[in-house]
Q: What sequence folds into this?
């Protein structure tokens, strides 16, 4: 495991979600301290908002920055509870909303991140998929990846899976052309798909690659936005959006990384 240098920002050095918790705590403490010193509400709010943004900015990923920056409204709620203007249980409301949209079970996966509309242009030519290929967006979020897949593969049978109930509901409403399931992408059987598209984190790409090697047919494809499968040369790369390549791997090439002698889906791979 690569050790991060001690000079790197705290938001990068600590495991998620500790940076968010620390940012929220710092904002709450700053708000209360400034109020105790007699600062005006506007000045205190501006100062604490700047503190939250400064702490959030070095974080990896836009969604994590947003989560860390909400320390300011959480601090306002805490201050209101302390002064008696809100009941003691009021702090549970933003926490409940956060957990509903982003359950703890998903905090180890990639944050909510939209696929750029043109990121998958040329996908069919690069993979040779049939026009009616069955394609899964694993961790589809709000459906941006499904929309990009629709543009690249207009006749494909598109499916998405998302763990968050409200986000899956929103994706279902946005993407009437696709079947969107609420569930765990890691427990879903991938064996029936011609291509699985995902955006993960660098530290979970090996897990995704092993799942693809065990469950996908040898001629099926794994497509990853931005992050590569460690130790495998991609069969093709789509570079439609600067800084956001899409790496394409056939399952047969990924399988060599793992010992698949105990796989339970051997029959499925032989179809």
A:
């Amino acid at each position: 495991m690569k050790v991060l240098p001690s000079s790197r920002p705290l938001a990068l050095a600590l495991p998620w979600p500790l940076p968010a918790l620390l940012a929220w705590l710092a904002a709450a403490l700053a708000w209360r301290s400034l109020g105790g010193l007699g600062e005006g509400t506007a000045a205190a709010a501006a100062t604490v908002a700047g503190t939250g943004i400064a702490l959030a900015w070095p974080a990896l990923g836009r969604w994590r920055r947003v989560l860390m920056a909400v320390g300011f409204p959480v601090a306002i709620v805490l201050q209101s509870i302390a002064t008696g203007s809100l009941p003691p249980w009021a702090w549970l409301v933003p926490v409940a909303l956060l957990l509903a949209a982003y359950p703890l079970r998903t905090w180890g996966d990639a944050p909510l991140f939209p696929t750029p509309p043109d990121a998958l242009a040329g996908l069919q030519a690069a993979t040779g998929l049939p026009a009616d290929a069955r394609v899964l967006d694993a961790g589809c979020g709000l459906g941006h990846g499904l929309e990009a897949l629709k543009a690249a593969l207009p006749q494909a049978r598109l499916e998405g899976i998302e763990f968050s109930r409200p986000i899956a509901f929103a994706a279902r409403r946005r993407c009437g052309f696709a079947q969107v399931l609420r569930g765990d992408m890691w427990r879903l059987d991938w064996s029936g798909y011609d291509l699985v598209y995902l955006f993960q984190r660098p530290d979970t790409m090996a897990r995704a690659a092993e799942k693809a090697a065990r469950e996908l047919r040898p001629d099926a494809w794994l497509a990853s936005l931005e992050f590569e499968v460690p130790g495998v040369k991609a069969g093709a790369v789509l570079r439609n959006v600067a800084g956001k390549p899409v790496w394409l791997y056939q399952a047969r090439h990924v399988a060599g990384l793992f010992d698949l002698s105990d796989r339970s889906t051997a029959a499925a791979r032989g179809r």
Remarks:
- The chain has a mean pLDDT of 77.
